[in-house]
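Histone-lysine N-methyltransferase chromatin remodeling SET family, Helianthus annuus. Tokens?
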Amino acid sequence: MFAQRKSCFLDNHDLIHLAFSGELLTTKEARRRQLTYDKLVSGSKRTSALLVVREHLPSGNACLRINIDATRIGNVARFINHSCDGGNLSTVLVRSSGALLPRVCFFASRDILKDEELTFSYGDAGVNPNGSKCFCGSSCCSGIMPSEHT
Ligand SMILES: C[S@@+](CC[C@H](N)C(=O)[O-])C[C@H]1O[C@@H](n2cnc3c(N)ncnc32)[C@H](O)[C@@H]1O
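Tokens:
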């Protein structure tokens, strides 16, 4: 998808079950790093991989927030790009017995072809109209990458 950027592809037909791993941050530290990354990334070829996941109660209120930064330490999931059409992966919080925190896992949301790029939705692009340019190429691309105020 990107000439200079890394992406993630499926090279077999196994069911996708991949956890996003990285440094677990406090919200204060996530906000501090996001400001640093915004400055470093704009206008350069560097990318960041700070994922903020909120778990919501049925009422709609957020009850758990997890900040995982795979920019320096992480696994292959840090190369999964955003797609405005929702992509082919869904994120699910998976709880293992005895674990304090859930894991953020990716599951296939539809059949995925061999060599197809893996993508998911990073969020709502409408949140930040000044976000960076989106190159997902989907027919419903908003042209702007989702980027929330962390
Ligand atoms: C988790 S990383 C994904 C891997 C990244 N492409 C790389 O080369 O390291 C997230 C970063 O990738 C870039 N990215 C992901 N999806 C994109 C898209 N649809 N359009 C433009 N840039 C994208 C952005 O710079 C974003 O901050």
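The chain has a mean pLDDT of 85.
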